[in-house]
Amino acid sequence: MTETQRKIGLFVCFVTIVLAVLDTQIVSAAAVPIVRDLDPEHGIGKIPWLVSAYALATAAVLPLYGKLCDVFGAKRVLLGAVATFLAGSALCGAARSIGELIAARAVQGLGAGGLMSVTMVVLAQLQGPRQKSGGAGMGGVVAGGGMALGPWIGGLLADHADWRWVFYVNLPLGLTVLAVGAAVLKLPRQDVKHAIDYPGAALAALFATALLVVTDWGGKKYAWSSPEIAGLLVIGVAALALFLHRQRTAPEPILPLSMFRIPELRWGFAVQGLMGAAMMGAIYYALLYVQIVRGVPSSGAGLYLLPLAVGMSAVGVFAGKLAERGWSERTFVISGAAVSCVAFLLLATTGTDTSLWLLRAELLLMGVGFGQLIGQLIVLVQEAAPPLQLGVATTAIRFFQTLGQALGAALFGTIVIRLYDGPGGTPDAVPHLTGTARTAGIEAYVSATDTVFLCAAAVMALCVLLASRLPKARVREAVPA
């Protein structure tokens, strides 16, 4: 590829990442208009499935995408994932009932599972070994910024346009990615025939689905001790055991256990999963705080995540420049985890009348920490992975992040419910309280969320400890100007 083609290819990758991440968060802001239009009487109870169907489908196919990349080449797999995502987006926009929309979101999620992970593989192949940190690092920053801006963009589209444009806006961008990617991308392919471990992929999908449904239903729809949750846990444990057995015996496993013998991959996967859990707590509970405690509308609440996005983007660019000068990924991972830990400790001091500018500053610091982690962890794993397992390693780190987010959401949600001791009995009652009862409810809710931020700080402290176990790799030679 010429230098111009490479630059165009990088731009295509970044647009693809934006498409993937925005749809993870964007629908939550448009939930009310969707319900009002499709099912005003019974739609509220089905809204969580608009997010869950997307997340379940995405997590279920992630391990398979990595192997497909290593077998068929990243270009073919990426274009197929984009086409699937666009088909799901079109079906979502044309949905005439909540049931149709949920089914279409699942189709969209099947494609989205490949957008983020496969794009990172493409970025790694577009750049040389010493330049990987620039592409993958910026890709991680774009992903984090999209995660932060998704609710705000969704709110704008829902308030000032038809909710269907939340999905239709993907079509022109996605079609451009398909056309330009097909014409410009020229990536290496293997000439050796390989088998795909479809039974292993099915077991991984079953385990991920059971885990995500447990975290979504546990303590909400069903009690943690209910037969339904217990049954799902049994299914998940059995699927995990069968999956591990399959990976030990399959000729070409979908997630080779030998990868966990490589320290960079073993500790990188662990840090990514823990970071996913902590990031979920930062974004979700910061948004709930400004809405429930400070009365900020949902469309305006998304603006409070802009400092997070700015911090991630700025430090991502800065880290990329330092990486070109020879700084190691291990340094950034340790530093990013430590900064994020400090930011969470500051958030844990939030009160009912804390300055909103102080909250913005704390989220900016959070972005500085996460910005170092997101991109550099991907680079670390890609550089340590065996060349023929680049796709599997890249999608695996995304898979562990998804599982971490699910577990983090369940853990933090349980903490808030258990620690809330205000009027109404549950945090859900706080928005409906008035007078002195509302004051007491808000104080109890803030106390519970402060504990969540403390737990997230402990998670990031554990990330610092695990990151320190990473090998002190040889510092890369500085790239000439």
Task: Give a verbal description of the structure.
This protein is mostly helical. Helices cover 76% and strands 0% of the residues. It contains 17 helices and no strands. The chain starts with a helix and ends in a 14-residue tail after the last helix. Mean pLDDT is 80; it is low at 474-481.
Structural class: mainly alpha
Strand percent estimate: under 5%
Outline type = globular
Mean pLDDT: 80
Poorly predicted segments: 474-481
Helix content: over 70%
Largest sheet: none
How many helices? The count is: 17
SSE pattern:
HHHHHHHHHHHHHHHHH
Query: In angstroms, what separates the terminal alpha carbons?
Result: 21 Å
Q: Please state the oligomeric state of the protein chains shown.
A: single chain
Query: How many strand elements?
Result: 0
Q: From the alpha-carbon coordinates, what is the Rg to the nearest angstrom?
A: 22 Å
Compact summary:
The chain has 481 residues and is an all-alpha fold. It is built from 17 helices and no strands.
Descriptive key words:
76% helix, globular, mainly alpha, 481 residues, disordered C terminus, single chain
Summarize the SSE layout with pairings.
Blueprint (H helix, E strand, L loop, with lengths): L2 H27 L1 H8 L9 H25 L1 H21 L3 H29 L5 H29 L4 H4 L1 H15 L13 H20 L9 H23 L13 H31 L4 H4 L4 H19 L4 H19 L8 H29 L5 H30 L15 H33 L14
Helix pairs in contact: 1-3, 1-5, 1-6, 1-8, 3-4, 3-5, 3-9, 3-16, 4-5, 4-8, 5-6, 5-16, 6-13, 6-15, 9-10, 9-16, 11-15, 11-16, 11-17, 13-15, 14-15, 14-17, 16-17
